[in-house]
Amino acid sequence: xxxxxxxNLPKRAIVLDAAALILGFTEIEDAVAVTSSKVLxxxxxxxxxxxxxxxxxxGLIKVIEPEPAYVSEVREVARRLGEIELSDADVSxxxxxxxxxxxxxxxxxxxxxxxxxxxxxxxxxxxxxxLHKGIRRMISWEVYCxxxxxxxxxxxGNPCPKCGHALKRRPRRESG
Length: 176
Prior knowledge:
It is built from 6 helices and 8 strands.
């Protein structure tokens, strides 16, 4: 694991997404704050870049890259759920939490992003929402055409393969 975690640290990790890092949620008691370099890249404005650099250089956070197998697994589950709004940084946060969790770490993702919360919950990962109450239920999405009713694989905004109207996204009706 690149930028790995030392053996003498507690086996509890808080994985920070870009919002958590930008807002300064870096001083975590009884846990290691971790993130990926993709998240650091999302800290675009000057103040956010400064906070990210200071947290990293000050030892408040560890920067670890998730293994490619975990990134692939997260992308596949996201595709199946229709979570197409996730950035590379979002995927890396979930993949890192999944990897650490499977390596025996007590792991939690700190985020304000509903898509991260939805996908992480589907993967059985703990999530602590910031800035709002968090998701109320998990959602699977479907792509459909509002004009002709077609639904299937596609990307919102692209033309419907049946009639040519722009495709949309909506929560999938769960059968049960």
